[in-house]
Design a protein that fits this description.
Length: 634
């Protein structure tokens, strides 16, 4: 059973990825030049190679997203890119489109994207059997549901077919089941499944009941708080999760540094408390700051459905970063405010507050004089007694702008004698060891004690390398003298040899071989929710027993009103109108349709109470980009 706990961090570019590794990530996921499901977060193959070279020094891994659904005319370019990424040193490809599995892909490990919507053991087993080695489970699963998947497929039913279970533990939450949201494409022609989501879920909506009565006015009703599983990591590990994933491929370096360091420390605590788990990469980290995820962009925190349905998962007031509540306004002057707070404010801090109409507003503090704050521009809508929040902590941000972490691989050094000189042995904790030698006539030291101290000091000078000496041993038959220049040269040679040995011994991720005969897909029919946009994907599903295959929604052949979003978030539940949960007069209320209104846009809400899901129903608009995908014979 794989018991290594992997911390998987995001990177919008190679520099951020390098910082993620420095701050403790065991693996980084990043977009390549195309097809990466995040418009504007692409990177060159050369950048991927630079990041992989750095990560591999610590036996960390680089996963590249190739996870959009693809048109037929894009498949060959995607195939060529997969080979280029493999040759650049990428360790795995994150994939959504099953058409890719019908192509001549390189021998690189495949991971199933969140867009494949994995909520059941049957789906997980199928993906394992067609060649995936790691899959990310739906964010909406509970611990019991995760455990059920793990018990059936998590450790592999045979030693030859292991499957690593991955789970999002931090960052922004898509309100819809991943891969099952089409609002963006319907309204703007920008497909979430092709990396161009317009984020309609962050817009304000008015909620109406069947009679047109307003239940909620101008609230961000589809906007979720941010995911935070800090308190659940050990429980997730015990349930079968082995890869802990931080969301945020569009986030800046400060966010990635802060979140990665935070979870690195939590996972390290688990590794100490639970020796049955092991590290997924090399090195130990030290930091110049104390990680505080609440200091960088977030919409509040929720553990979502991991511990069952919770009443307060929505960020209905604002989809922006309000920050931590920091005090209350006590006085207002012509160009200043005074705040009753235990915080120490600084020049450059950002302050936010809920203005009239519950709209989030903000200001930058030019000068902070104790509790008196002078904004760069004095707002007109401030009131005494109003709570204020700090959404930029200038001192904290400055710490993260500098070099803020160091990662070193522990090694043991032993200097001994050879027939014609001396040898330096270097060993790590993962089985790599080397011996560097130098020919030198043996000459006794005039001051043995001083000579031994000097030898130890020069051997331990590993500060500019990836290594840190945890033990230095000198084993001589007599107190021999070695010039400092000789020791330094021997140490440098030993470090170079150790780097080469570790690269030789670096674990490579194997590509899983699909089972034969082809594993049957759990269903015999695929609707537009199957996201089949090309003929190779169609061939893939036919080979696996699917008889009826509809076009992806992005093919623009799905007419009329359909479910544009399927979500476990339920507005009836949020407003105490759930027939299962309600008391008193609400008990007799059926799951009647409700409506979301944004300007002229009206979206019908239908409730599947048996599945405990909400469907946002609508149809395509005419004024948008249209890409017609011809499907021969269909």
């Amino acid at each position: 059973m794989n018991n290594a706990l992997e911390l998987l961090a995001p990177a919008k570019n190679a520099d951020v990825g390098i910082e993620a590794i420095r701050h403790g990530a065991d693996a980084v996921y990043i977009g390549g030049p195309a097809f990466g499901a995040r418009y504007g977060a692409g990177n060159t193959v050369a950048d991927i190679e630079r990041l992989a070279d750095f990560a591999h020094r610590f036996h960390a891994k680089i996963f590249v997203t190739l996870n959009t659904i693809l048109r037929d005319d894009e498949l060959d370019d995607a195939r060529k890119l997969a080979w280029q990424l493999h040759e650049a040193g990428a360790d795995a490809l994150i994939v959504q489109d099953m058409g890719l599995l019908e192509l001549d892909l390189p021998p690189i490990q495949l991971h199933a994207s969140t867009q494949t919507d994995i909520r059941s053991a049957e789906k997980a087993r199928f993906l394992r059997d067609v060649g995936f080695s790691q899959i990310v489970l739906a964010r909406e699963l509970s611990l019991d549901e995760i455990r059920a998947v793990h018990q059936k497929v998590g450790s592999g039913e045979t030693a030859e077919r292991p499957l690593t279970l991955e789970f999002f533990i931090h960052g922004a939450l898509c309100v819809a089941f991943s891969g099952q949201c089409y609002i963006s494409h319907a309204h703007t022609g920008r497909s979430a499944n092709r990396g161009e989501c317009s984020q309609a879920c962050r817009l304000p909506y008015t909620l109406e009941d069947k009679q047109g009565r307003i239940v909620a006015h101008e609230k961000h009703l589809l906007s979720m708080k941010d995911n935070d599983q800090s308190a659940n990591l050990r429980a997730l590990a015990d349930a079968g999760i082995r890869s802990f994933k931080i969301e945020g491929r569009l986030k800046d370096a400060a966010y990635v540094k802060n979140a990665t360091a935070h979870y690195r420390q939590l996972i390290d605590t688990i590794l100490v408390d639970a020796p049955e788990y092991s590290r997924a990469s090399s090195g130990h980290c030290s930091y110049t700051f104390t990680p505080r995820p609440e200091k960088t962009f977030n919409r509040g925190a929720t553990d979502y459905f991991v511990n069952g349905r919770q009443p307060d998962i929505g960020a209905f007031d604002t989809p922006s970063f309000a920050g931590e509540e920091s005090g209350t306004i006590t006085r207002i002057g012509p160009d200043w405010i005074e705040v009753d707070s235990e915080e120490n404010f600084a020049n450059g801090d950002g302050i936010s507050y809920m203005a009239r109409g519950k709209t989030l507003s903000g200001m930058r503090i030019n000068v902070a004089e104790g509790k008196r704050l002078f904004p760069n521009e004095m707002p007109e809508d401030l009131k005494v007694g109003m709570p204020v929040y700090r959404n930029r902590d200038q001192a904290f941000e400055r710490l993260l702008e500098k070099d803020s972490a160091e990662r070193r691989i522990p090694v043991r050094l032993m200097l001994g004698e050879t027939a014609d000189g001396f040898g330096l042995c270097v060993c790590d904790d993962e089985g790599s060891s080397i011996v560097a030698t130098t020919a030198l006539a043996k000459e006794k030291a005039k001051d043995p004690r001083k000579s031994l101290v000097s030898l130890g000091e020069h051997l331990g000078k590993l500060g500019s390398t990836d290594f840190k000496a945890t033990e230095i041993k000198i084993s001589f038959s007599a107190p021999w003298f070695l010039p400092a220049s000789t020791v330094n040269a021997l140490r440098r040679e030993a470090v170079d040899m150790m780097i080469a040995a570790r690269e030789t011994n670096r674990p490579r991720l194997p590509r899983a071989v699909p089972v034969e005969p082809p594993a049957p897909y759990p269903e015999r029919e695929l609707s537009y929710l199957g996201n089949v946009l090309n003929n190779h994907a169609r061939e893939f599903y036919r080979k696996h027993g699917v008889e009826l295959i509809a076009d992806a929604y992005e093919a623009d052949t799905t007419p009329g009103d359909v479910s544009l979003m399927i979500t476990k978030h339920c507005l009836r539940y949020s407003y105490s109108l759930c027939p299962k949960e309600a008391k008193g007069w609400v008990k007799g209320v059926n799951a009647e349709p409700m409506t979301l209104v944004n300007g002229k846009e009206r979206l019908l809400l239908r409730f599947d109470c048996k599945a405990c899901e909400m469907h946002v129903v609508g149809k395509m608009k005419k004024h948008r980009r249209i890409t017609i995908v011809p499907v021969p014979g269909h």
